[in-house]
Specification:
It is a single chain. This protein has about 110 residues and is mainly α. Helices cover about 75% and strands about 0% of the residues. It is built from four helices and no strands. It holds the Pfam family UPF0060.
């Protein structure tokens, strides 16, 4: 389960970077050259999703929980936004949901 969780975090980071760089270009006037690493990052995101051993629907459902946590950590560490108690609580609930789904892989 640790390997799967770490793979989910890496997958989420690739997706967030792939979406954040075009956002910088469109909203903050950054260079359009950021679209190149953004495309590479989104390609890595798609490839990383294929490395999971479960059916795609289960992978996407479980991945969603890790994505919530990763997005909030990105918001805090990269964008410098202070997170609220409810942000942390929601992230914990989402992460627990991922753990429950992954624990059931192979039992269905």
């Amino acid at each position: 389960m640790i390997k799967t969780t770490l793979l989910f975090f890496l997958t989420a980071l690739a997706e967030i970077v792939g979406c954040f760089l075009p956002w910088l270009w469109l909203k903050k006037g950054a260079s359009a050259l950021l679209l190149v690493p953004a495309a590479l990052s989104l390609t890595a995101f798609v490839w990383l999703l294929t490395l999971h051993p479960a059916a795609s629907g289960r992978v996407y459902a479980a991945y969603g929980g890790v994505y919530v946590v990763t997005a909030l950590l990105w918001l805090r560490w990269v964008e410098g936004v202070r997170l609220s108690y409810t942000d942390w609580l929601g992230a914990a609930v989402a992460f627990c949901g991922m753990l429950i789904i992954v624990a059931g892989w192979g039992k269905a």
